[in-house]
């Protein structure tokens, strides 16, 4: 389906998303591995076209980086901006919605992270008709090379967000919502596992999971305790307002990670520091000392249901694009749209 046909289809659903939209986009664009230069380019071009339809500023951020083994590599982030009415003024706020578009070389990456990109694009579409009402600026970014060490999100934060939006445009950073694996809904008993080090850091959440027989029937929101709660509250309110989807639970995962982590806390909370949200929590910009608020929205990835076997494997594929999973994804999209709209006003 070409981009104009997509646009016509999406315009039917201005108030929220639709399972048909989510299914079509996942099946057409996110059921093949996205690790090679060619595959990532194909996906990046689609994302750029979509963001160009629904944002006033769309750009490709090319960057160079090195992997953990020292290999030089090049990547491209895709950025779409809905400028707020206060942009360029001291009272302007910036909200980021981010997700990575690359996948592991062995995997089609439907959940990881086709689901996150589809959610990001749908939130952008839903908010686009309201852009003239926002006082604050909303930035959508599709990160490249997450699988090589969150290289895309580090480049975005250190080479674009801080120097261009926060420093040059004098913006107040409100926070970032990061989407990484938001498709897998599994309400069966003991479908949910949690590593020991994670469980010991979040005893309240573990007690909740135990009481619920370890069902994977929830979206988790990863937040540093207190620090990122201003992002948690509007999302929680929006999630709970969706009474039709009451079977979908919401769990906050909020370990007491300090604002400026030291070596010991980095080791103790290492399982919480894997993913693009960590590029905001522990950025490397020498001229900007403050940690940036961010939360991760995730179905917990390799700790739930089929993804315990299929994480980074070929079976993270189109067979999991089911109605139940798509309803879960729809709940994520509509709740995040409402939360970002609230923060954008």
From TrEMBL:
Pfam families linked to this entry: Peptidase_M28 (PF04389)
Cofactor needs: Zn(2+)
InterPro entries in alphabetical order: EF_Hand_1_Ca_BS (IPR018247), M28_fam (IPR045175), Peptidase_M28 (IPR007484)
GO MF term set: metalloexopeptidase activity
GO biological process: proteolysis
Domain Peptidase M28: 77-187
Family: Belongs to the peptidase M28 family. M28B subfamily.
Protein name: Peptidase M28 domain-containing protein
Organism: Leptotrombidium deliense
Lineage, opening ranks: Eukaryota, Metazoa, Ecdysozoa, Arthropoda, Chelicerata
